[in-house]
Amino acid sequence: MKIGILSVGQIPPEVLAELAQGIVKIFPDTACSIINGSLPVPERALDRKRNQYNSSVILSDVGVFSANKEKYDRVLGVVDVDIFSSGLNYVFGEAYVPGNAALISLWRLKPEFYRENAGTNVFAVRMLKEAVHELGHTLGIQHCPKSYCVMHFSNSIFDTDKKQTLLCDQCYLQASLAISNLG
User: Fold this and answer.
1) Of 128, 76, 127, 125, the residue nearest 99 (C-alpha)
2) Max intra-chain CA distance, the chain
3) How far is CA 92 from CA 53, 80, 106, 175, 177, in A?
4) Residue 161: which of 134, 119, 121 has the closest Cα?
5) Cβ(130)–Cβ(109) under 8 Å?
6) Among this protein's residues, is 130 annotated catalytic?
7) Which domains does the chain have, with CATH numbers?
8) Measured between alpha carbons, how far is 1 from 76 in angstroms, rounded to an integer?
């Protein structure tokens, strides 16, 4: 599987590189690269009353971009704004299930958001967990009932911190089958 990582807005290149390195360790037979350039954060996604961005609107732009990039099986958009989805106060990410596009937000993954020590690798681990989770959705994997599986739904950052970066055996099997069917 070929995954392209797309900056939506301004994301530091070293953050994208760290994410790409982590993703290839989790998914079998995967190549991951950073897409040159970036998409702007769509202003139409901003809900001024909430002071948050609608994740579905941003994901739609990532999806349109991914459809034009035939060299990637999946495109993961990375944004650094606070996002929400209909019916939820906030989300860490969103994806087409199954599909070719996923989105994660770094906003609520940063330790500073929770007044935690920023000098740890907590941010990198959280970022990787959410990326793997959303990419798993693009492979058709639903939420897993096992709290340690990366595909378990995160209702809060505590849920994200509790789970592993890895797929459980059942979800890993689903991912491997989906990836092998790509080509």
Assistant:
1) 76
2) 45
3) 12, 10, 8, 21, 26
4) 121
5) yes
6) no
7) 2-180 (3.40.390.10)
8) 13
Over 80: is that where the pLDDT of 169 sits?
yes
For residue range 48-93, what is the model confidence (pLDDT) as tens digits?
999 999 999 999 999 988 776 678 999 999 999 999 999 999 999 9
Q: Any idea which residue has 């970066």 for tokens?
A: 165
For residue 182, give both structure tokens: 């790509």
- Bridge partners of 33? 4
**Residue 3 in 3-state DSSP?**
strand
**How far apart are the C-alpha atoms of 94 and 84, rounded to whole Å?**
9
- Count other Cβ atoms within 10 Å, centred on residue 60: 17
8, pLDDT greater than 90: yes
pTM: 0.95
Q: Which of 43, 70, 116, 134 is catalytic?
A: 134
Burial (CB count within 10 angstroms: exposed 0-12, middle 13-18, buried 19+), residue 132: buried
- Mean per-residue pLDDT of the chain: 94
Residues 128-137 pLDDT 10s: 999 999 999 9
